[in-house]
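This section describes the prediction task in plain terms. A model, or a person checking by hand, is given the sequence of a single protein chain and must write out its three-dimensional structure as a string of tokens. No templates, partner chains or ligands are provided. The sample shown here is typical of the held-out split.
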Amino acid sequence: MKNLYLRNLLPAMALVSLLTGCVKMPEEQHTSYETITLTRQTVTAPLTWSAAIRGTGDVSIVSRCTGTLNRILVKDGQRVKNGDVLFLIDSRSAQNALVHAQADLQTAIANRDNAQLEAESNKELAEQGIISDYLLRKSLNSLQSAEAQVAQARAAVRDAELRLDYCTVKSPVDGLIGNVAPHVGDVISEGMVLTRVAGVSEMEVSFSLTESQIHAIVSELGSLEQVIKIAPPLTLRFKDGTEYSEKGRITSFSGMVDQRTGSVTCYVTFPNPKGELFSGMQGTIVMPIEWEDVMLVPLTAIVRIQDKALVYKVGADSLATSAIVEIEELGDGERAAILSGAEVGETIVAKGAANVHDNDRVIW
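The expected answer:
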């Protein structure tokens, strides 16, 4: 029985051996990638930030009196100058108040004059010994009280004049009228916002700098005040890609880091002689920066995983190894500078890095 088993097994083994010899085993596959060797160089490239635009003289026009709105003298978007009349509010009550205040002033003046006559008369009588010093001092005190009442009455007149003036609402700046909220006949209350005037002779453009960018700037230049002094002229790029003809200058920075965004706001002032810029517009700030002695790589060499940036280094054995690097994009949409995590002379995958894995054999 044992011999019979062996006789049956041997042909089967021979068949397996024959089939194995005919089947070709798969070979290790290699993929070719474009690589670069890291060097240091100096280039000029722009940094860009998203920016919001508003007029430097934007003001809210707020009613400072109560009354019926009689006239609206402007329309949405109308250009106005400082001192132009925008609204007229019913002024009859304010006019009556002014008349009463003026009448009270005249009464106070008359009382003051009478008190002065009495004081002068008592002074002469006191010198002649006809009346006592007590009566003289009393009349002098009455004169002082009457003079104080005149001062109060004058202040009341000035206050009434202001109240009357508030019924004529004027623009405090040159600019463009925003949305006109009320209608003729509406009852206007004190403190109500009637419209906004956007100052357009100069425009303020704001953008945000990250904490790391602020730290790098301060480390390089010493202070933000120094940045304001030596920063180059900035360019404003519209959403359609065109550039604004005027250049801007950095004027200030916000005083603290926004805890929600971790950024500091930078303010740039642009002249607006042709009125091309409007409050509420969006754009991009472009700052030319000279990058000195940096390792530049194409963005195709960077693999982003959440908040990390990776590159794949290629060793002498052609095996790829991932490395976390700190980078700063140049703003041209094509390149980045490696700040740390790699060294000059190392070779990295330049294109197709997103398809590479650790220990892949890279042929170049």
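For orientation: Residues 1-28 have pLDDT under 50 and may be disordered.
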